[in-house]
Design brief:
mainly beta, Immunoglobulin-like, 1 helix
């Protein structure tokens, strides 16, 4: 992870669910950060989280990812033994000034979240033409 891409990485913090549901574990999910030419890409492992239980926000330059995974018995089934606990995933990444929070996109597929954070146009590498007189 380059310092320019994400300056601060705050791991799991207290989640509201943990106060009312003491059996809920708060976990900092595994994250990969790639610095590409036009954007920084963040890949996050969120097993058991669907799009309704996922929240992505940016505030004061901090990208926050939060999701909740809960394993429930199908309708009509009684849970006889339950070893899968509810899990709250939370991760916060501080974005550098060279990134544009306005153009962030996200895709969730099979428990893997992919977030693309575009670089500001003025900070992208570019080739300078040389004028010969």
């Amino acid at each position: 992870m380059t310092q320019e891409a994400c300056v601060l990485d705050r791991k799991a913090e207290a989640a509201p669910e943990a106060e009312t549901e003491p059996w809920v574990a708060v976990v900092a999910p595994a994250v990969d950060v790639e610095d590409r030419q036009d954007a920084v890409h963040v890949t996050v492992d969120l097993p058991g989280v669907d799009e309704q239980a996922l929240e992505i926000s940016v505030e004061n330059g901090v990208l926050t990812l939060a999701g909740k995974a809960r394993i429930e018995a199908p309708a009509g089934a009684e849970r006889v033994l339950g070893e899968f606990d509810a899990v709250v995933y939370k991760r916060a990444l501080r974005l550098s000034d060279r990134l544009s929070a306005g153009g962030i996109t996200a895709q969730l597929r099979h428990g893997v979240l992919r977030v693309a954070i575009p670089k500001r146009e003025e900070t992208k590498a570019r080739k300078i033409a040389i004028n010969v007189n």
